Amino acid sequence: MGRTDAWRSQAACRGRHDLDWFDPSPADEATCRAMCAGCPVQSECMAEAVSRGEPWGIWGGLDVSERAQLATVLDLGLPRVLPAHGTNSRYAKHG
Asked: Count of H helices and E strands in the chain?
């Protein structure tokens, strides 16, 4: 495990493949956010997603627009602009 991945082993969402974290339905989004709220590594998750400009999903309890607002406040730049998760253009362009 790398330095940036060490926190992942403690994440409340670890192994929760039943939830769509990248393009969640409203019900999944509520469940993801609730899980993040009680997660012991929420701040590490959020910080990593904001610092690398994660363009999809729920990370540390924030969606992409909320992370973009936080990145603007922190002067970190906006998330990367990539095709929507799960689209053919995303897979063709980014593998």
From this structure: 4, 0
